[in-house]
Design brief:
The chain is built from eleven helices and ten strands. It has 297 residues and is an alpha/beta fold.
């Protein structure tokens, strides 16, 4: 219960099951039963979770989601400052990872309030482990923009990322996203689509992005996590066409050509002159093709 001595309380970030309720951390039930305040992304889902765990919350339950996160944070910080133990849970997985939580953590830390966690299931790590792709280095990119142009722009920004990448996506946008990834990363880039992790209809579909895009066009349901292999390692030989493509991707993302060439050369471990020559040759070939086409008309 809240401390009446004037000491500040504690913010607890608690992981919740991403599918199977049996995966709930052992400490989760105890924290739910004893917290002074439970901040939940969806109070209805929280109710279903407590029923499944066979427990009851004794503290005040409030909603804490994207729509009210900014307005609710000061209220929760005030409760923490007054000595309350505040438990934050989201619909699934760890709070603050592509879910509400970051603002509250930052605000609590700023007030020197203790923040701790009840570790729990994570769709990011579960999908990564099941993907059969390299896991020694990875990055989490969350949800891509909904608009096609913005989505392509974001993908172009990470086209040369060498670490394995993890994305979240809505099922009704999965086919468009995979098609965009195949366009930007290359149809042969390896990936895995992880669907309904730890649930009854769990499925992991692995293969080249081009094939996965065709598969997804038929329609896919459920919670989706996409894992994509990183770009070609600098130790592997890159042909001129690939060097030119990488420069073009960087230019389309807003870099000047000189900077793009330097960056691609550094990534590939090649002299800048070699990349520059490839770009010039491609430009001349394109101009020659255009001139020949005009001559035929």
């Amino acid at each position: 219960m809240a401390d009446v001595t004037g000491t500040t309380g504690t913010l607890v970030l608690a992981g919740t099951p991403i599918g199977a309720v049996a995966d709930a951390p052992p400490r989760l039930a105890a924290e739910l039963e004893t917290a002074d305040v439970v901040a939940a992304e969806d109070t209805r889902r929280l109710r279903r979770l407590t029923q499944a765990l066979g427990i009851h919350t004794t503290g005040r339950v409030v909603s804490y989601f994207e729509g009210n996160e900014s307005a609710r944070t000061p209220e929760l910080v005030e409760a923490l400052a007054g000595g309350a133990r505040v438990l934050l849970v989201t619909d699934a997985g760890m709070p603050s990872v592509s879910d509400p939580g970051y603002r509250l953590v930052a605000a609590a830390v700023e007030q020197d309030i203790k923040v701790t966690a009840v570790p729990g299931p994570s769709a990011v790590l579960t999908a990564l482990a099941l993907s059969a792709l390299p896991v020694d280095r990875f990055c989490f990119e969350g949800f891509l923009p909904r608009k096609a142009g913005e989505r392509l722009g974001k993908l172009r920004e990470v086209a040369d990322e060498r670490r394995t990448m993890v994305f979240f996506e809505a099922p009704h946008r999965l086919d468009d996203t995979l098609a965009a990834m195949a366009e930007v990363f290359g149809a042969d880039r390896r990936a895995a689509v992880c669907r309904e992790l730890t649930k009854t209809y769990e499925e992991v579909k692995r293969g080249p992005l081009g094939e996965l895009a065709v598969w997804a066009a038929e329609g896919v349901r459920g919670e989706i996590t996409v894992v994509v292999e990183g770009a070609t390692d600098s130790g592997e030989a890159l042909d001129a066409a690939e060097l030119v493509r990488r420069v073009q991707v960087r230019e389309e993302a807003g870099e000047r050509r000189k900077e793009a060439i330097a960056a691609v050369a550094a990534d590939a471990g090649l002299p800048k002159r070699e990349v520059f020559d490839a770009v010039v040759a491609a430009k001349n070939a394109a101009r020659t093709g255009q001139e020949q086409g005009k001559g035929l008309t």
